[in-house]
Amino acid sequence: MVNIGNDWDEILSDEFKKQYYLDLREFLKREYFSTRVYPPMQDIFNAFRYTPYERTRVVLLGQDPYHGAGQAHGLCFSVRDGVPFPPSLKNIFAELSSDLGIPAPHSGDLTPWAKEGVLLLNTTLTVREGCPQSHKGHGWEIFTDRVISILNEKASPVVFILWGGNARSKKSLITNRSHKILECAHPSPLSAYSGFFGCRHFSRANEFLISTGQEPIDWSAICRTNN
What is the pLDDT of residue 225? Predict the structure, then answer.
């Protein structure tokens, strides 16, 4: 069974027993045995491992993992150290620089953001190599919708960052008025100039956190050595 290693284990324990998740688990067993799937099995729940429920202050929602070799490691938009930046990640770093003056880091590994309290969550947590959205509709969306709903119930205010149509479709799950929703176009080169560039979501997220008595996210943490 899944062992995350923090408060998510208890929070999600009932979810892992439900029939849809058991069916998903069997599907994943077949997929990992018969073809190449990303991220590696041990990395599927990294978003939860690095960002406990109690420490989650920002939720950044992606779609599904990168489907190229060596890229995905369980955090949305993030790639392993040493892997070239995908186009969307390049645009994220460009907006970060424009918004906060933070230069593009040497590594595309966003683990430091996760450790700051940013839950880097994809709506689908696995994908077949070379086949984007190939694991859509097999149960992951039920699971991640439940995660969003659980975070919606959180007493302390949370910032939900929704980039692109897939993420924005989850807006209806966020009903708690104490939270903040930031939404715009996806950072993909196909849509970045339609509202992503200039969104200032990094500074706006911190402004909200400060206004609610919380520590801001140190977005510059990715410029230091990833540990």
Answer: 58
Number of residues assigned to the chain: 227
**Pairing assessment for the beta strands 37-38 and 127-128 based on DSSP bridges:** antiparallel
Angle, in degrees to the nearest 10, between helices 87-100 and 201-211:
60
> Position 79: which residue type?
V
Position 166, amino acid: N
By C-alpha distance, which of 132, 112, 131 is closest to 122? 132
- Residue 221 amino acid letter: A
Cα gap 187→63, rounded to integer Å:
12
DSSP state for residue 131 in the 8-state scheme: B
Sign of the dihedral defined by the CA atoms of residues 99, 100, 104, 108, in that order: negative
Q: What is the pTM of this model?
A: 0.96
Read off the pLDDT of residues 33-92 as tens digits, 9 standing for 90 and up.
999 999 999 999 999 999 999 999 999 999 999 999 999 999 999 999 999 999 999 999
Instruction: Tell me if residue 27 falls in helix, strand or coil.
Output: helix
What are the catalytic residues?
64
- DSSP per position, 78-97: ---TTSPPPHHHHHHHHHHH
